[in-house]
Amino acid sequence: MNNWVGMTEEQAGIVQKARKRVIESIGKNMDLYGVTLSTGHLYGMMFFQDKPMTLDEMGEEMGMSKTSMSTGVRTLTDLKMVHKVWEKGTRKDLYEVEPDWYQTFADFFVIKWQKSIEMNVQSLRKSAAELKRLGENDPDNEALQSIVATDTRKLEEAIHYYLWLGRLIDTFESGEVFKLVPKEEPQADSK
Prior knowledge:
Elements: H1 9-29, H2 37-47, H3 55-62, H4 66-78, E1 82-85, E2 94-97, H5 101-137, H6 142-174, H7 177-180
Antiparallel strand pairs: 1-2
Family: Belongs to the GbsR family.
Protein name: HTH-type transcriptional regulator
GO molecular function, one term: DNA binding
């Protein structure tokens, strides 16, 4: 998959070593995304490809089974880190990495945190309603009223946090976050 034409063996070796270092680093850091080391290595390998790849090509490059590649690609596709592309004359599915790492992070952030917000707000509201009913059933119990008031206040603070987090997610989805924190622009080589 790599074109080493026009390079000496030593130059190709240096490029391969540099790429391997990045691929290994990406693989280790992908646990932040809930991704296995091998899937992280797959993403890193695909990052350096100059054209889309089939599952067979990935398996050959990684020395792993097509089934493993399929599982890894499905994970990366679900996270919007890899997407399927169409190429005229090719019947096999082709995949390539999403080149915009900013968008990859934004998509990941949105996917993971939306699920968390929905689950947690539902649990917080259910617990707040239960505590309210409990307090209403025994309004003269000072110990109970104190605990209900303290816990309800904590639950309301948590709900407000998740509502704020939802607005933050909205800035990622709309791209507004990049107005607040602009993307870094690559520096031109100073040769």
